[in-house]
Amino acid sequence: MVKSISVLGCTGSIGRQTIAVAEHTGIKVAALTANRRVDLLEEQARRLHPAFVAVFDEAAARQFRIAVADTDIRVGSGLEGLMEAATLAQADCVVTAVSGSVGLRPTLAAIDEKKRIALANKETLVCAGDIVMSRAAERGAEIVPVDSEHSAVFQCLMGRKKGELKKILLTGSGGPFRGKRREELEKVTPEQAVKHPNWNMGAKISVDSATMMNKGLEFIEAMHLFSVTPEEIEVVIHPQSVIHSMVELIDGTVIAQLGVPDMGLPIQLALTYPERCPSMFGRLDFAKLRDLSFEAPDFEKTPCLKLAMDCARMGGTAPCVMSAANEVAVGMFLRHQLGYNRIYDAAASAVEKVGVAKEPDLETILAADTAARAYVLENFSK
Ligand code: MG
After folding, report:
1. Chain centroid to CA 75
2. Is the dihedral of CA 144, 150, 152, 154 positive or negative?
3. Taking the CB of the first residue and of the last residue of the chain, which one, N or C, has fewer CB atoms within 10 A?
4. First to last CA, the chain
5. Contact 194, 99 (CB under 8 A)
């Protein structure tokens, strides 16, 4: 169990839940970072007394420095601030809950310091999975997944030998528009897309869940995290989100991890692993559960999932380009600047037009990320 954490991205959905879990389990918070939500950050900082706080946005950092001038909290800003929070000596674990590729360098820096990474930033493995996993192995840093699916697989594989795994069964609810055809989704609004049937999450990931790009990103992450090939992962639609994922072993045995759909549970395990402790979350009541159902994904109706799986096979910078293009397109959709179906169009077209580099280094990956963003802004703005 970890003693003290740095929370990168503390004002987002995962960041706030991480803080709640830390307070519940008595884990100290050594550092916090946020983009620009100064009010919430100040409230958190006054309650938790971290040694260091970084505000990414420079103007917001100035504002925050003034707001906490009466305390002894050190304040940093920009990427430098994020890096300092990620490598702070007092923390033995870094929770990477920032969204976007900005999380990459701090994660690598934390790995170099041998800190446990409680991984909640998708881009880390989607964009730079090969680099991050080999660096972690080299330095002996643990990567414990926070995402519910990967946490489930992680738990199902506890105490197993690598050779016993036949395949990963990655479950997904199918989102709010499961079974709908493209033509029926033409007029979907941001308000409709962010209403997930089971999970309460941030806006971007909720849209990704609706398009199933989220499952595609998780597919790519799972490849890296558990060093399996695309052929060794099968996506299973399971609308109730009670099973969080499964593994099939070579003898045909399937092991599943079940629990209430609350991100607090995988967050808590990422911090207490290899131990477990009582949680403040709900319990499954099998008398009330009734049906658990399963179906195969319909790739024609979930082109984003198909695209992500194709990019996983392509490798190189393909997943990074797709993910960056998708992020920009989802942002435009949330601001009512792009139609729902155009999210897929933007991501697919970026993969085709931006080009894919094989075996990229970190600079090449970050350049591909920038190029994909620029491509979508240039070609998909109204
Ligand atoms: Mg997930």
Report:
1. 26
2. negative
3. C
4. 50
5. no
pLDDT score of 62 more than 80: yes
How many whole angstroms separate alpha carbon 283 and alpha carbon 239? Answer: 19
Contact call for residues 293 and 172 (beta carbons, < 8 A): no
* Neighbouring residues of 374: CB distance < 8 A, sequence distance ≥ 6: none
Domain 151-261+281-380 of CATH type 1.10.1740.10: yes
Q: Calculate the average pLDDT of the chain.
A: 96
- List beta partners, residue 6: 31, 94
Q: Beta strand 254-258 with 243-249: parallel, antiparallel or unpaired?
A: antiparallel
pLDDT tens, position by position, 185-221: 999 999 999 987 777 778 899 999 999 999 999 999 9
Which among 199, 178, 203 has a CA at the least distance from the CA of 189?
203
**Residue 7 token pair:** 């929370």
User: Could you tell me the distance, in angstroms and rounded to a whole number, from the CA of residue 378 to the centre of ligand 1?
Assistant: 30
* DSSP H or E run through 255: strand 254-258
Domain 4-145 and domain 151-261+281-380 have a common topology: no
Both tokens assigned to 133 = 């996993």
Q: How far is the CA of 227 from the centre of ligand 1 (A)?
A: 18
- Residue 147's SS3 state is coil
What spacing in Å lies between the alpha carbon of 283 and ligand 1's midpoint? 19
Q: What CATH superfamily is the domain 4-145?
A: NAD(P)-binding Rossmann-like Domain (3.40.50.720)
pLDDT digits (tens, 9 = 90+) for 233-284: 999 999 999 999 999 999 999 999 999 999 999 999 999 999 999 999 999 9
- How far is the centre of ligand 1, averaged over its atoms, from the C-alpha of 3 (Å)? 26
Residue 201 is predicted with a pLDDT of 76
Count the Cβ atoms, other than its own, within 10 Å of residue 193: 24
CA of 147 to the centre of ligand 1 (A): 5
| Single-letter residue type at 82 | L
- For the segment 289-331, what is each residue's pLDDT rounded down to a tens digit? 889 999 999 999 999 999 999 999 999 999 999 999 999 999 9
SS3 of residue 379 by DSSP: helix
CB 37: neighbour CB atoms within 10 A?
A: 18
